[in-house]
From TrEMBL:
Superkingdom of origin organism: Bacteria
E.C. number: 7.1.1.-
Name of this protein: NADH-quinone oxidoreductase subunit N
Membrane spanning residue stretches: 12-31, 38-60, 72-91, 103-120, 126-145, 157-181, 201-224, 236-257, 269-288, 295-317, 323-344, 365-387, 399-420, 446-466
Organism: Brevundimonas naejangsanensis
Topology in membrane: Multi-pass membrane protein
Pfam families per record: Proton_antipo_M (PF00361)
CC annotations in GO: endomembrane system; plasma membrane
GO biological process: ATP synthesis coupled electron transport
Task performed by this protein: NDH-1 shuttles electrons from NADH, via FMN and iron-sulfur (Fe-S) centers, to quinones in the respiratory chain. The immediate electron acceptor for the enzyme in this species is believed to be ubiquinone. Couples the redox reaction to proton translocation (for every two electrons transferred, four hydrogen ions are translocated across the cytoplasmic membrane), and thus conserves the redox energy in a proton gradient.
MF term (GO), any: quinone binding
Subcellular compartments: Cell membrane; Endomembrane system; Membrane
Assembly: NDH-1 is composed of 14 different subunits. Subunits NuoA, H, J, K, L, M, N constitute the membrane sector of the complex.
Length: 480
């Protein structure tokens, strides 16, 4: 097999999505809006095919080390592509119900998935930047999907402007690293950092971390998150809170663990600081929120702080903890947004926490599912949220960062208040006026129930196969 054919074989998931996305774009352009459901269905099949190609495909590196297919990349891509497929399904039913369905929505998700796949397989600074920009450009458009809505336009513009700022920080850091290390490849950078861990290289790494922290909405680089979560369409926010965060976390693991693993003492301090700030902003910032999506924005900030705590450990146990946490976090987020997308009253979506009053009477099963997901987000055992925090706090304690773990526990208690408020409104509050809950889309309703089931009884069985999968993915990560 020639080098080119081997490279094409390794990058088959991204090539499939790129070519398929362009074909679907042409189908939609020539057939018009009547092809929206067809394009959505084919997009889901395309993402599932890319997942299969990533799982069964060969392992190795291509394009002079710029592209890496290893167990970490395979696990990350499977989670990314499946999350994107769910976002397409959720968005299709919701947008048709609100008369804003367009074929561009699933196509943009497919094209964003190409960039997210590249991020998971990045082996150097060039592929890192290409992957980030490929997925970011599609997400900027999705954030402003409702062009006639003032908040959506504001969300898209704010996301774009601050995204450009973060790209500048990232490029400046990458240029400094290249200037000192003399190479773009993570392997070469790791070799240089082990022999010459000078201040210039660390200075560049700090800028790089700041740019990557924006992509996962970690504080203090979170300023775009609440407004974008509030202004963007709900299915778009469901995408933002899952697949892009997984891609960015896998990329952070690659850069820090593989590229700068032997400089762990320097960058771990930065990650711990970012985690602590994220704990404070996410926990206290969400206390006064009344809009559910804005509340989930602050929830995402604190949860990213937990995930970064696992990376800060700098060990394979820490990497496994981060992968486990992100997997369980994604399931909970999908459940939350699926239930939100399945609820509407008197023809309008439910956006305020107070709108959930009376849900126990109108939709008892949905009320139970939302309660389970809320308890999971708090971290009540044996919910999935408990196990995710159990792994990251354990990894942090093993690495000697037990005080940061203790701060995370305190933040979790504070954040528990706004999830308990959701439960209280569902079960104990009565609506201010008589309302009727509209008929729910079947797909969103079942996805929400399935996520809640996974978060409680099914999880005890799921951990038996999820734990070895994350361990195998973490074992493929080279420390330094």
């Amino acid at each position: 097999m020639t080098d080119l054919s081997s490279a094409l074989h390794l990058s088959a998931p991204e090539l499939t999505l790129a070519v398929g996305g362009l074909v679907l774009l042409m189908v939609g352009a020539f057939s018009g809006e009547k092809s929206t459901r067809l394009v959505s269905g084919l997009s889901v099949l395309l993402l599932l095919a890319a997942t299969a190609l990533a799982v069964i495909g060969p392992l190795g590196s291509a394009f002079n080390g710029a592209y890496v297919a290893d167990p970490l990349a395979v696990y990350g891509k499977a989670l990314i592509f499946l999350s994107a497929a769910v976002a397409v399904v959720l968005g299709d039913s919701w947008m048709h119900r609100n008369n804003i369905a367009k074929f561009e929505y699933p196509v943009l998700i497919v094209l964003a998935s190409v960039g997210m796949g590249m991020m998971a397989s990045s082996g150097d600074l060039i592929s890192l930047y290409i992957g980030i920009e490929m997925h970011s450009l599609a997400l900027y458009v999705l954030a402003a999907y409702r062009r006639d809505d003032l908040k959506a336009s504001e969300a898209g513009l704010k996301y774009f402007v601050l995204g450009a700022l973060s790209s500048g920080l990232l490029l400046y850091g990458a240029s400094l690293i290249y200037g000192f290390a003399g190479s773009m490849r993570f392997e070469d950078i790791a070799a240089f950092a082990s022999a010459n861990p000078g201040p210039g290289l660390i200075f560049g790494l700090v800028f790089l971390i700041c740019g990557l922290a924006f992509k996962v909405s970690a504080a203090p680089f979170h300023m775009w998150t609440p407004d974008v979560y509030e202004g963007a369409p709900t299915p778009v926010v469901a995408l933002f809170s899952t697949a892009p965060k997984v891609a960015a976390m896998v990329l952070i693991i690659r850069v820090l663990i593989e590229g700068f693993g032997l400089a762990h003492a320097q960058w771990a301090q930065v990650l711990i600081l970012i985690s602590l700030i994220s704990f404070a902003v996410g926990a206290f910032g969400g206390l006064m929120q009344k809009d559910i999506q804005r509340l989930l924005a602050y929830s995402s900030i604190i949860n990213i702080g937990y995930a970064l705590l696992g990376v800060a450990a700098g060990t394979q146990v820490g990497v496994q903890a981060t992968l486990m946490f992100m997997t369980l976090y994604v399931v909970d987020q999908i459940g939350f947004f699926a239930i939100l997308l399945s609820l509407s009253r008197n023809g309008r979506p439910i956006r305020k926490i107070a709108d959930l009053a009376g849900l126990k009477k109108d939709r008892p099963l949905t009320a139970v599912a939302l309660t389970i997901l809320s308890l999971s987000a708090i971290g009540i055992p044996p919910m999935s949220g408990f196990w995710g925090k159990f792994y990251v706090f354990g990894a942090a304690a093993d690495a000697g960062y037990w005080m940061a773990g203790a701060a995370g526990l305190v933040a979790s208690v504070v954040a528990g208040f706004y999830y308990l408020r959701i439960i209280k409104v569902i079960w104990f509050d009565t609506p201010e006026f008589d309302v009727t809950t509209d008929k729910a889309p079947v797909s969103a309703q079942w996805i929400g129930w399935a996520a809640a089931a996974f978060s409680f009884p099914v999880l005890l069985v799921a951990l038996t196969w999820l734990e070895p999968l994350t361990r195998a993915a973490a074992a493929g990560v080279g420390i330094g």
